[in-house]
Amino acid sequence: MLYFNRCVQDPKWKINEREVLTKLCSLFGAITLEKRLGDLYSGGYASPNSNIDNFLREGIIMLCRDLVDNAVALVDVLAPPDFILNSALGMSDGKVCSLSLSLSLSLSFSLLLLNILYIKLFTCIIIIHFQYM
């Protein structure tokens, strides 16, 4: 945490970037504490009547509300580009609609084949099950 604070205070970050990074860090900390709430209670760090669970939940919701305006930018930072994902949107030929249609049709066909295989496998399992009963 100390390292994070030092890095965020670096002048290379703009003020709004600093705020978003600090909110993300706070959100991570609050979610981590909420997940480990049982340990806080059992270790005596929080009492059951302290309402810490409500405070953490309200803080998480408040931080999410604050970060919702930056959601697209945050996803863009973490997500790989479309051409790496072999996405129709990342193709440079300009035929997004036709490629999207062909990809969805091939995916639908693949899912249909997968469903048929699952049905056959399930049928075989049932037949084998009843043969050994």
Give a verbal description of the structure.
The protein is mostly helical. It has two domains: 1-79, Butyryl-CoA Dehydrogenase, subunit A, domain 3, CATH 1.20.140; 82-133. Helix content is 71%, strand content 0%. The longest helix is centred in the last third of the chain and has 36 residues, at 96-131. The chain is extended.
Compact summary:
This protein has 133 residues and is mainly α. It has 6 helices and no strands.
Helical residues, percent: over 70%
| Superfamily (CATH H level) name of the largest domain | Butyryl-CoA Dehydrogenase, subunit A, domain 3
Give the total of beta strands: 0
- Rounded to the nearest angstrom, the distance between the terminal CA atoms is 60 Å
Radius of gyration: 25 Å
Tally of alpha and pi helices: 6
Main pleated-sheet profile? none
The shape is extended
The chain-level mean pLDDT equals 76
Summary tags:
single chain; 133 residues; mainly alpha; 0% strand
Indicate the topology.
Layout: H1 2-8, H2 15-35, H3 37-42, H4 52-67, H5 71-78, H6 96-131
